[in-house]
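User: We ran a pulldown and think these components assemble together. Before we commit to crystallization trials, I'd like a predicted model of the whole complex to look at. Sequences follow.
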Amino acid sequence: MTATDVSPAEPNHNLRFLEEVSAATAGVSRLEMCIQCGTCGGSCPSADDMDHTPRMLFAMIRAGMRDEALRSNTPWICVSCYHCVVRCPQDVHIADVMYTLKSMAVRAKLYRDAKAPEFSQTFVDAIENYGRSFEFGLATRHYLRHFPLRLPGMAPMGLGLLTKQRMSITPHRIDGIDQLKAILARAKELELTS
Amino acid sequence: MTQYLFYPGCAMESSARAYAASLESVARTLDLDLAEVKDWNCCGATEYLGINLIPAYALIGRNLALAAQQAKQQNGSGAHTLVASCSACYLNLAKADHYMAERPVLGDRVNEALAVGGLGYKPGTLQIRHLLDVLINDIGINRIREKVTRPLHGLRVAPYLGCMVPRPDYDHRWSDHEQPDELDRVLRALGAEVIDFPLKSECCGGHMPQISPNTAFELIRRLLQGADQYKADLIVTVCPMCQMNLDAYQDETNRHFHTRYRLPTVFFTQVMGLAFGDDPAALGFGSEIVDARPALARIGTAPASPGGAQPRAKIEGLPFPGRRPEERER
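Assistant: Here's a predicted model for the assembly, 524 residues in total across the polymer chains.
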């Protein structure tokens, strides 16, 4: 039985979760092709720090465990190294599915650690305002908020980056910022979410 | 001379200034004509994709559209290759081009958004390539070798590509997804002693120093330890993020594990410029946090070992069947 065959009377709407994740993924996710072989987890350099290996997470998605899957730290610990992607015997777009799960968790506010989503959002805010990334603003805001205790130890490095002109204290704004803002505003209305 | 469209990306103007400066110098030596895409915007790195899908691809799409437009205006040069020097930018540009074709609904929506800004992009219009790919496959190893005036003999280097160049490799441009040898070949042509670095395409941690520091420190430690075990003087990379993590976070990683690694990490274009005889300061040397000078002082100090297997001093001493005397001379 495919998810589309689920009758309206089916009490668990999460049976369609796999389909939903696939629909919101950039390419053809091939998530339903997963054979649970575990090559992904075995190839993952950061699996030790994950709540679930990618294989487990994909089983949870297929089982309709929406909240558990979206609360998992796994997508946030994924480093996008694509080792699993090139090794997957079924060509599942694993890294892209991880991006999808992040954006779904952000929308549902189901992430447990705010560091990663806030870092991404701060990064994106700079792009939306200037068209370029702004590392100095991002680093100061992020570290003050989330890692104040690391700052003393990091001061020499930060100072080094500044004196070696590897970090600018003013952002660069592109000429076509209004054009970019208009494009992004329209893009948000066209989002691929159900 | 072929002209290439060039997408530098944000890091080239800030943390990876040394990459930009050395690339300019190397491009001059090799007659590589890179035309910067006018008014490009950030590619979104690995951040925008985790927040919104269509906006993230529209952001990349604007760069592709601008580049394609510029290629059309510069008719005659035949430029339709877009070159990126940063791994994340390279992957994002390639990803958008690839997925806009693979999933037409994505391509349609991105184009619908771009249309608001008077732009559009037909997937497949541009060929997206990384700088290293262009240097080795278009310029070629021979031309690189010809330009060497100061061979890097005596310098032991760890070639480090990171993840996003050889993977996922939508266009099948790399010799291997996990152990590609392109960077090794370039560095060997410069006269450097290149270690067979098994971690060459392992991850540096990406944005993890800001998200989950312990995850990042562990990934950085593996790379430093690996390069140190092979007695590398220098780690040579192609990626601004890898350079940043290995260089700027090396101290913090050392403190975390109570280790004392001092491994300078520089861009491959910097060591190319060095071998071409350029002034180190003009190549951005000195901007690294872990000082590269002690490593550079080794250049010319010892003859580099010839490539391939070393002849064994006493084959009789080995626990393998010995060769007959008449075979030994080969």
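Chain A touches chain B through 73 residues (CB under 8 Å). That may be worth checking against your pulldown data before setting up trials.

User: Thanks, that helps.
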